[in-house]
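Write out this protein's structure.
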Amino acid sequence: MIAVIQRTINASVEIEKRINGKIEKGLVVLLGIEDADTDEDIEWLANKIINLRIFNDEAGVMNISVKDAGGDILLISQFTLHASTKKGNRPSYIKAAKPEIAIPLYEKFILALADFLEKPIQTGIFGADMKVNLTNDGPVTIIIDTKNKI
């Protein structure tokens, strides 16, 4: 799994001109799933995201997690994170999991995040054409690949 995590002061996802998910202070997480991903990857990544200390404390130092800051999470599925650009100019998405594998993992990831954060997670819709709007705070953007845990 690959996650792009952006600290935000507000974010929303629109599908067919309707807001599907919306948060104020928190994290926007773009999630790419591949066939090799497992329940272990879900647990590890969800726990890592919830505990990342990327919100400012009273001294202005990034030392507080989204959970401790009282923030929310907007999760968006994004198969293009697994794009291979080694050959030519047209990306290949061969590593991205097919929906029959990716959807159950995505749904488990939503539940894991909600469990760790102890509140509901806002989402897009898997496979939909989505318009994501956010104000990146900082900007702070972190990329995590579960294949690089060690």
